[in-house]
Amino acid sequence: MKRDIEDVTSISAADLEKLSKEAAAEATPSRAKIMWGEFKADKPAMASLFILIFFILFVIVASMFINTPKMMETNLMGYYAKPFTPEYWLGADSGGRSIAKELIVGSRNSISIAIGLTIISSTFGICWGLISGYYGGMVDLAMQRVYDFMMIIPMLMTIIVIVTIIPHYNAITLTLILSIFYWMGTSRLIRSRTLAESQKDYVAASKTSGTGNLKIIFREIMPNISSLIIVDTTLSFAENIGVETGLSFLGFGLPMGTPSLGTLIANANDPENITGYWWTWFPAALEIIVLCLSISYIGQVMRRATNAAQRRGKQQD
Amino acid sequence: MWKTILRRVLIMIPELVILSILVFLLAKAMPGDPFTGSINPKADPAQIHHLMEIHGLYDPWYQQYWNWVVHLFHGDLGMSYEYQEPVVDLIQQRGANTLWLALFTMVLTYAIGLPLGLYAAHHEGKLQDTLVRVYTYVTMSIPFFVVLVLGIWIFGYALNWFPTSGSISATATGFGATTMSRLGHIILPGLLGALFGTVNIVQYLRSEVIDAKHSDYVRTARSKGVPMKDIYRHHIFRNSLLPIAAFAGYSITGLLGGSIFTEMVFSYPGMGLLFLNAINFRDYTVITALVLLYGFLNLMGTLLSDIVLSIVDPRVRIE
């Protein structure tokens, strides 16, 4: 390589190195770098990121040491035990179950479902939006009608009805059922962006040179809207935490015996609990608030970073 | 414009048909039969068999579906097994409560959201704008049911400012007292719903007004010497507020979905609570009727919004 260059030009290898270093310094930084820079500049964002990562790791590791069936057993000795005691850090509920342990296992369950739901529904929504927006015409029209129809279904009610019909279900089935109903927001966003993207020259050029449609969609358009996808996925993750916990709160989420943040908050449905035994539900409520606020904040910062990348002249979605 | 509206209404018909088929099949998939609970448990199985035959429950599903639709058009939604009352009557009683709460929430949402959006746009980039942004970020992120629980805990139980259950107090008599009592029961849930439901209005209005502020026609008006106050009143508001008004229909979906949580937390006897009770008692006729009704209301809401939008915004019309 070096010799080749020396053959054709008079630039020496040392000069070339210096020139490429200069070019690299002047070039716009990579997207990941811009995003990281945005996080470093924003203290609360860094805090949210660390809280979130630390919390998820803690919950996963700690829940490994907890024997769930044993934890869910009733223990009359601990009936509504007060919090801040050596045995019950956060007190106990009517069955004498330790709230702290329930909180850890419940968080793991709720977060896992939210992650699963986000992965499945976002993947589906992204594919739906890409295909609908790229092909346009009749394909788009038909897909839009399905979308319209999904939007008028009373989601919460239908999910509750399905959950009551199915005799046995577990966390995975529940995630799949929820995924049927939570892809529309993503798909609409991706569709409108793909519509705009397919009008661009590089797509036309790619088509003319005979690239396959699927390759254009997934290898060319999708990388170009990747930052939009990342931001949207983060924000839906924050929303999805509320989906399963909300259902469990109503009593139609995770089956009995599987703690969730929602079932813990459901303790508040008893007027006696809500004031007298606040420790049975308040920690879970607080945790959901902190989780949702930090994830959502991370999403906002990512969105800002995307805009910052645009400001710095990098061709973005 | 008429073309858009006509097309929109025509699209609605197949949607309604598919929704009704879906609801019907869901009802069919539920365990038990319509006579559970309405007859003596010691009844002769042969007699039940006979009843099933008379009521056409052995017919193919499309035949049953057709019968159901015919009854539907006669306003006959069946009997509730739990309440032993026609479902139509039940929904009429409970529907009024849900309707009041939803209307109250919607009015409050606009009353809070519009000024905030305008305020933020007016002070674009300043501290006030940031504060409004923090408010929308917080209200958008927290799941609504958590807000309801915290709200009823603080303002209902701890401070005892508002009632914590029911839609009217038992002691209220006379028109004035009952109205006040009804209002007292919906203030807290309505206020919470409104405070945490303004995100779309605030964000949309803010960006619309900011766009308009920097547009050419506003600059022209300013350079002609029109006072800024008049520009806001006659140009900016007119252009930005109309699409917002059209959002009212879309927000029905959110309000109805939220009503299940609100009515559960506040033990407010509306359709959401009726639905949850019906699920617990496996009261299938009520469940079917409510799912269909909510779907129909969603449909009407979107239709309304689409029509209003096509009137105020010529860009969405089809030529």
TrEMBL record, chain A:
This is Peptide ABC superfamily ATP binding cassette transporter, ABC protein. The chain crosses the membrane at residues 45-66, 111-134, 146-166, 247-266, 278-298. One of its GO terms (cellular component) is plasma membrane. Belongs to the binding-protein-dependent transport system permease family. It is a multi-pass membrane protein. Residues 107-299 form the ABC transmembrane type-1 domain. InterPro entries: BP-dependent_transpt_permease, MetI-like, MetI-like_sf, OppC_N. SUPFAM superfamilies: MetI-like. Keywords: Cell membrane, Membrane, Transmembrane, Transmembrane helix, Transport. One of its GO terms (biological process) is transmembrane transport. It is found in: Cell membrane.
Automatic annotation (TrEMBL), chain B:
GO terms for cellular component: plasma membrane. Keywords: Cell membrane, Membrane, Transmembrane, Transmembrane helix, Transport. Residues 95-305 form the ABC transmembrane type-1 domain. InterPro entries: BPD_transp_1_N, MetI-like, MetI-like_sf. The chain crosses the membrane at residues 99-122, 134-159, 186-205, 241-266, 286-312. It is found in: Cell membrane. It is a multi-pass membrane protein. One of its GO terms (biological process) is transmembrane transport. Belongs to the binding-protein-dependent transport system permease family. This is ABC transporter. It comes from Lentilactobacillus sunkii DSM 19904.
